[in-house]
């Protein structure tokens, strides 16, 4: 399945960036600069090849930003290739989500490819390997193959079927292709070196029998290529110049190169020319695999198996739960593409595995939101403030700036009357040292209004504070002589009569420990799940926030950065998720 070539663009919400080669210095970009300077390549071609057996997570973001970003920086292109060689675990929903997530991050692919586009080529290439004495059909079971493979300190043993003659191997492989044998009964293996110090070269499997219906090819193929074989040849077929992989594939690089070299697609067009009849234009190259360290964030897990367990066992509500480290979860939480790209930029590219503190990601979104989020006022834990020297029925409409540092954001209308809500934490009967907010007999500035003095504290029979009565210094209002009078604190508020009650969800880190999936001490990783990672509260918002569109972000002044939930929010029932607090807790 092939989509037409697409122009390589960035999302319109993101900053425009130059198409000239970036001056970012890391070892991968330096290799690419050297290859271009030497004439080895005239242009740079990369790919992002996820397996559609789950949703993308924060770890994938690094691979996406690196492969697509490098292609853009050097004026080349990047394919999105779906590695659909394991149909029993793949789902069309995952495919749709992968494409959506890549676009959300701000990237577009040159062509959308599938490994299954090349199944006929892989099969012909396997026949060629058999003919040249580089592959054989093995009757050992999977358990027997593992037993014969040896260990890190002991060499493997040759299979008793390793020396079958070429004609028999071709006959058996063709019969595998026609579905004559049961699943697992035979395997096509590369003939390399069972004594190799690299276990990946001890006659690895190239094809296995799996009679599973494929979403793209149906029941045509009862055999499927193994990842290492399909991945290497797919890169070569697509003319990929630099195959960027995470560090765990470093030990697989010799096998990658073996597959590319032994098949030699550039030198044997008869293997792939039939692709053109399917509308696939290609010029095979010999790609170069380069490995980099993965993105590991503290307080997160990225194992697809464990992420699925979180969903299936009800620890979270869905794959896009804002507590999840999936890209869909981060998006629903309110993280922006720009903040994730900034994280990738700041953590850099190296071959050294490390764990990045989750606070780095939080600081990236704070930086983005400080510059780009309009301000609104909201109260989460309200206490009534009644201004007694303003007449009943008084109502005025103020014009407040949407952003204190950027006039281009304009202004919005805010209602002000004698009854307001303020945060409970902004009042104290017995203030601690250094408290600069409202106290009995004390003064504080109301944001955009003026200075009020607390004259009376109203309590119920149990002594709980129910309301505060205050007077407004009318001369301290904007434009009047007392407007510049100094007081120690400024607090926010919302108008009690016009405020809109909304649901707010306060999210915290899903795990209580920095390395939740470290089970070396025998403690199950699920014991580290934070049961208080989600709190649901009511808040009172100024109306202009409540009518936000889904995924619209604000700074709720003095509280944090929030986003209108992309699933549950509506004007009739506003729902906001806290993205992050204003400063690191």
Describe the structure in your own words:
- This protein has 585 residues and is α/β, with parallel strands linked by helices.
- It has 13 helices and 25 strands.
- It has helices spanning 27-38, 58-73, 92-104, 119-131, 142-149, 166-177, 227-237, 253-263, 304-312, 327-333, 337-347, 358-372, 543-546, and strands at residues 45-48, 77-82, 112-114, 135-138, 187-190, 205-209, 223-225, 242-246, 288-292, 375-376, 378-379, 382-387, 395-401, 411-417, 419-423, 443-446, 450-459, 465-472, 490-491, 494-495, 500-507, 534-541, 553-556, 560-564, 575-581.
- Strands 10-23-24-25-21-22-11 form a 7-stranded mixed sheet. A 7-stranded mixed sheet has the order 19-16-17-18-12-15-20, with no helix packed on it.
- Helix 11 packs across helix 12.
- The longest helix is centred in the first third of the chain and has 16 residues, at 58-73.
- The radius of gyration is 31 Å and the shape is elongated.
- Residues 1-5 and 7-22 have low confidence and may be disordered.
